[in-house]
Amino acid sequence: MRVSSYVIGAPLADDRFFLVLHGLQGSLDKITARAGAYLIEHRGEEVISPPWVDGDAVEEQLRQRGYLTDLPAERERELLVEVASLLHEADLAAAPPSFVFVPAYTCNLRCPYPRSFTVAVILRVGKGL
């Protein structure tokens, strides 16, 4: 068992608790400062001498919420890519189609601008054409 590579955390103001977030599963929990500091310090590493008792409720909760995992780092990374791809595809499916026209520089030189056209018409009208 190892600490997930996607654990994010910060100590709370009273220094007794830690706020931890699992970046892949979306879990957000308030845990003891010792447990939170351990997770952050040992991110991506094997669990060796944790501050909780082996097999107790804290360990089980951390495992269920994804902070502790049996997945190797490579598989966890693959899972991240899968989740990101699914979210990206869902976002693309929900977005309305859009188009952007970008004229080339040569087209820009060939096409008269309305301002240029107006000036040319005024000059011709002034000459009696």
What's the arrangement of secondary structure elements?
Layout: E1 2-3, E2 7-11, E3 17-22, E4 28-32, H1 33-41, H2 57-64, E5 68-69, H3 73-94, H4 105-110, H5 114-126
Antiparallel strand pairs: 1-5, 2-3, 3-4
Fraction of residues in β-strands: 15-25%
**How would you classify the helix and strand content by structural class?**
alpha+beta
Number of domains: 1
- Work out the helicity level: 40-55%
Q: Tell me the total number of β-strands.
A: 5
As a whole number of angstroms, the C-alpha radius of gyration is 30 Å
Assign an overall shape.
Answer: elongated
Mean pLDDT over the full residue set: 83
The largest sheet, given as strand count, sense and whether it forms a barrel, is: 3 strands, antiparallel
Number of helices: 5
The stretches of 5 or more residues where confidence is low (pLDDT under 50) are none
The strand order across the widest sheet is: 2-3-4
Distance between the termini: 89 Å
Could you explain the architecture of this structure?
The model has no long low-confidence stretch (mean pLDDT 83). The strands form two sheets. Strands 2-3-4 form a three-stranded antiparallel beta sheet, covered by helices on one side. Strands 1-5 form a two-stranded antiparallel ribbon. Helices cover 45% and strands 16% of the residues. The protein contains five helices and five strands. By secondary structure, it is α+β, with helices and mostly antiparallel strands. The protein has one domain.
